[in-house]
């Protein structure tokens, strides 16, 4: 196991260092820092010293995040009030920092709470922090979930095969769905939207909703699949979020690892639903928004959801009596609209776009209808992929059993096909024609 | 079944990897008109700042096994996303390239920064939306009167500097958007006209305006631009030549008095840009007309005057390079000597749009210097004065008059430091056609060496 873990750590570091070799120092520091913190917290368990070490860990990790992710944002806002004597920090955002800092915070908190034992092996701890499957785009893997797997795990044909299935499907979601949606987003939202009709504006933002879901869940699928190939069993990160029937339901299905992190480490310690529930909800959502990016629009986005979570809480009885279809529709409209807040970092652009959504003076051009027709089969595929078939057809149902049997035999060939299609599309994305010869 | 799944997956990976190493790498992508990436040298600095890894990524992308086939298959695959009807209007949005210039003007409308790099003039005009209509591509752009005025000031400045002995002509070609064959887009003709009129109305110091669009508007029922390429065709260029002759006091040579040639299956730049199947299925046929005048041509590189033999027409240019038939493509500087013994000399400042136009001028001048403002670094004033050039003609596509960067580039031709222009030497005109043995590829390679 030591050899397997060592090779995984080495290759994870090579993977991480590929684009940003310098930031490997940061990850090494983070690993050593919380490895030491964990040991000390456990050693001084039940004493004030343990609490101090816990705060050292939390503050240290948040300081990393503040410096590298939010440094420029903080500088801009303070500088707007008081002119600062130094230039705006221009650090690039180290890949995965939002994920691995949260993982190490959760580790120290769990050790402090006595829910897990501190990891004695530095190698195993480094593997927990750096394992390449989920390093770049999550999911946020809690230490308690994989503590045992770090120490001992088995890999068999079935694990690798299931991992391959999941990986190929994730790649398909990213390349065939998210990237295509991204092209339409660029066309309708990125190239200026002065003459957009309302229909085109809604179309653009719906495409962004599709892009963001399939992109993120595609990465999560690939991470979960890769993990499985190496014997790690990560938790699910998405469960058909666009089938949700309320905002609260949506966030039980969307980026689950982040939601549970904030639930367990912020919402419950603040008092959960026992005291100041509405305040706790708002705090969690403002933090969730801020986690997504260093810009006020993300805070507004968190506030937007905080408000609707509170409204849903207050109107719970009435919502329960509302027909399911209407609840689904209401949720989808809220979610799609929220994507506009998420997308436009500039508030002036957001305002202009919202006007376009509801009261554009322009008519849709013929090119818009062409786009609808030319993507017709793709839209159908997207809708099919958004439907929670496993919730509709229970495991014991005939349909489920037949589909499983078909899947079992067809999957290897489907994987080959998906891999080929994705490769072709990825190669096509590198096609970079020039009008004149460029040498 | 799990084992089969794993084995198939591993075989796929192994197949891809081994073919990557077994298939010899290509150097140039003809379709993309660029040199493919070479494997980067590993340096500590490059590794630490990530540029080495980026270059390796680029190398792998460029040399992926069967890359061209993959791109072709991807085009087919993308076509399967939905339904398609004939005459279906499509809007294609090209990826924006990074813009290197700002748009700051002084109170007279002149750009503040005169040393700005220019983005490729084509990219300036076409980096927005394009309309695909029945297999033809049109930019949804009509130019900018404001930039037209800036262009006119630059041309007028040349007229003032060169004095009354030299005639200076503005012979700007409209965009193909002026001729979109659909009622809904007719207003683009007006937009093109507004830009060109702004140029015409702003010319001073005796600079002469050739009303190219006005002449072309007399022939709207004829095809004057390619469907798959961003250039005008020989007919479009001919009507510009007629407009020029009217403004220069020449009698245009009728097309019937020239030798007609035809080339087929031309898929030009706009097909490569859009990769749209309807455009692919609508390849252009290029007819062109060779004036019955003997010529000889010398081509020069970017900076010097060490010339090599060239020709006015490249008969062997075909496929994606069909448009290079005119002047053998975009050569920084060409000197054409003709059999017309009238002692008149012209200098044409052009981008690629000017190539198809310039070839008609051989009937009116004994000597023509053709300078591609994007690539030439010889000093224009020096060249004009030393060779006692009579007419300076700005024969550019309108996209050269749509950005500060390109206009500044043309302005800088007058002052840029090049070697002293050579004293006039007589050449013996021979033939207008490039012999078959001189192919385009050596021309490209020659450009590489410069």
Which tags fit this structure?
heterodimer; A: 439 residues; mainly alpha; 2 domains; 74% helix; globular; B: 450 residues; alpha/beta; 3-stranded antiparallel sheet; 15 helices
Please give a structural write-up:
- The complex is a heterodimer of chains A (439) and B (450).
- Chain A folds into 2 domains: 2-153, no CATH class; 158-382, no CATH class.
- Chain A has 21 helices and no strands.
- Chain A has helices spanning 2-17, 24-43, 48-68, 71-81, 97-113, 122-130, 132-135, 143-151, 157-190, 198-229, 247-253, 256-270, 277-292, 296-314, 316-321, 324-343, 347-359, 366-374, 376-386, 389-392, 398-429.
- In chain A, helix 2 (24-43) runs antiparallel to helix 3 and helix 9 packs across helix 21.
- Chain B folds into 2 domains: 21-79, no CATH class; 93-449, no CATH class.
- Chain B has helices at 2-22, 44-48, 51-62, 67-79, 121-126, 145-162, 187-202, 212-216, 234-248, 269-274, 277-280, 353-358, 380-386, 404-412, 440-449; strands at 28-29, 34-35, 90-93, 129-133, 136-139, 167-170, 208-209, 258-266, 284-291, 295-300, 308-310, 313-314, 333-338, 345-350, 367-372, 391-395, 433-434.
- In chain B, a hairpin with a 2-residue loop joins strand 4 (129-133) and strand 5.
- At the A-B interface, helix 9, helix 18, helix 19 and helix 21 of A face helix 1, strand 2, helix 3, helix 4 and strand 3 of B.
Distance between the termini of chain A: 51 Å
Which strand order spans the largest sheet of chain B, edge to edge or round the barrel? 7-6-16-14-15-13-10-11
Judged by helices, strands and strand pairing, the structural class of chain B is: alpha/beta
Report the sheet-strand fraction of chain A: under 5%
The number of distinct structural domains of chain B comes to 2
Number of helices of chain A: 21
Provide the residue-averaged pLDDT of chain B.
Answer: 83
């Amino acid at each position: 196991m030591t050899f397997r873990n060592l090779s995984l750590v080495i290759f994870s570091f090579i993977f991480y260092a590929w684009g940003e070799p310098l930031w490997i120092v940061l990850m090494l520091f983070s690993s050593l820092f919380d490895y030491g913190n964990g040991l000390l917290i456990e050693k001084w368990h039940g004493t004030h010293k343990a609490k101090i070490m816990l705060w050292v860990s939390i503050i240290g990790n948040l300081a990393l995040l503040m410096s590298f992710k939010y440094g420029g944002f903080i500088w801009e806002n303070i500088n707007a009030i008081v002119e600062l004597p130094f230039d705006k920090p221009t650090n690039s955002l180290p890949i995965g920092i939002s994920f691995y800092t949260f993982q190490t915070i959760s580790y120290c908190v769990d050790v402090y709470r006595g829910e897990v034992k501190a990891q004695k092996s530095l190698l195993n701890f480094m593997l927990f922090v750096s394992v390449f499957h989920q390093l770049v785009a999550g999911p946020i893997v809690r230490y308690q979930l994989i503590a045992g797997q770090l120490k001992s795990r088995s890999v068999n044909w079935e694990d690798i095969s299931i991992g391959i299935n999941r990986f190929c499907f994730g790649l398909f979601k990213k390349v065939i769905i998210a990237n295509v949606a991204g092209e339409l987003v660029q066309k309708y939202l990125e190239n200026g939207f002065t003459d957009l009709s309302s229909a085109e504006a809604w179309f653009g933002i719906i495409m962004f909703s599709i892009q963001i879901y399939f992109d993120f869940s595609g990465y999560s699928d690939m991470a979960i699949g890769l993990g499985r190939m190496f014997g790690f069993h990560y938790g699910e990160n998405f469960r058909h979020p666009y089938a949700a029937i309320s905002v609260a339901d949506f966030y039980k299905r969307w980026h689950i690892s982040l939601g549970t992190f904030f639930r367990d480490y912020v919402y419950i310690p603040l008092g959960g639903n026992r005291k100041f529930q509405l305040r706790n909800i708002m705090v969690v959502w403002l933090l969730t928004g801020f986690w997504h990016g260093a810009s006020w629009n993300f805070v507004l986005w968190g506030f937007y959801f905080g408000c609707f979570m509170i409204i849903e809480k207050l109107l719970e009885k009435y919502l329960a009596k509302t027909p399911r279809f209407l609840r689904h529709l209401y949720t989808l409209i809220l979610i799609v609209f929220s994507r506009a807040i998420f997308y436009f970092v500039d508030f002036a652009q957001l305002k202009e776009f919202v006007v376009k959504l509801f009261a554009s003076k322009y008519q849709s051009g013929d090119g818009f209808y062409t786009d609808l027709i030319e993507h017709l089969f793709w839209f159908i595929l997207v809708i099919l992929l958004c439907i929670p078939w496993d919730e509709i057809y229970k495991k014991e149902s005939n349909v489920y059993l037949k589909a499983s049997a078909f899947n079992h035999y067809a999957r290897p060939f489907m994987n080959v096909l998906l891999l080929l299609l994705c490769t072709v599309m990825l190669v096509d994305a590198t096609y970079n024609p020039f009008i004149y010869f460029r040498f | 079944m799990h084992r089969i799944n794993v084995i198939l997956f591993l075989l796929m990976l192994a197949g891809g990897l081994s073919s990557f190493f077994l298939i010899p790498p290509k150097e140039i992508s003809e379709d993309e008109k660029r040199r493919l990436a070479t494997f980067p040298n590993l340096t500590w600095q490059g590794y630490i700042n990530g540029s080495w890894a980026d270059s390796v990524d680029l190398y792998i992308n460029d040399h992926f096994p069967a890359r061209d086939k993959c791109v072709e298959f991807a085009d087919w695959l993308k076509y399967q996303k939905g339904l398609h009807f004939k005459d279906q209007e499509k809007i294609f949005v090209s990826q924006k390239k990074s813009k290197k210039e700002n748009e700051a003007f002084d109170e007279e409308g002149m750009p503040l920064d005169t040393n700005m790099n220019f983005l490729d003039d084509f990219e300036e005009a076409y980096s927005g939306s394009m309309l695909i209509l029945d297999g033809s591509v049109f930019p949804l752009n009509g130019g900018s009167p404001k930039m037209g005025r800036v262009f006119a000031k630059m041309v007028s400045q040349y007229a003032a500097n060169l004095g009354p002995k030299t005639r200076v002509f503005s012979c700007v070609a409209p965009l193909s958007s002026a001729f979109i064959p659909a009622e809904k887009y007719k207003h683009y003709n007006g937009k093109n006209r507004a830009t060109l009129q702004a140029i015409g109305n702003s010319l001073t110091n005796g600079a002469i305006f050739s009303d190219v669009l006005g002449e072309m508007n007399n022939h709207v029922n004829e095809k004057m631009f390619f469907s798959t390429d961003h250039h005008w065709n020989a007919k479009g260029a001919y009507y510009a030549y007629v407009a020029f002759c009217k403004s220069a006091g020449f009698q245009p040579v009728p097309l019937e008095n020239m030798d007609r040639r035809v080339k087929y299956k031309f898929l030009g730049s706009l097909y490569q840009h859009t990769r749209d199947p309807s455009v692919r299925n609508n390849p252009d046929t290029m007819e062109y007309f060779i004036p019955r005048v003997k010529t000889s041509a010398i081509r020069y590189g970017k900076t010097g005057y060490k010339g090599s033999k060239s020709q006015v027409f490249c008969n062997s240019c075909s496929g994606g390079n069909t448009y290079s038939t005119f002047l053998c493509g975009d050569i920084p500087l060409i000197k054409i000597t003709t059999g017309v013994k009238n002692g008149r000399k012209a200098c044409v400042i052009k981008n690629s749009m000017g190539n198809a136009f310039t070839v008609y001028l051989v009937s009116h001048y004994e000597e023509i210097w053709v300078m591609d403002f994007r690539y030439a670094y010889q000093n224009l004033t020096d060249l004009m004065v030393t060779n006692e050039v009579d007419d300076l003609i700005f024969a550019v596509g309108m996209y050269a008059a749509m950005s500060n960067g390109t206009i500044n580039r043309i302005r800088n031709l007058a002052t840029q430091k090049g070697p002293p222009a050579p004293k006039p030497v007589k050449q013996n005109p021979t033939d207008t056609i490039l012999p078959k043995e001189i192919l385009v590829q050596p021309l490209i390679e020659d450009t590489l060496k410069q």
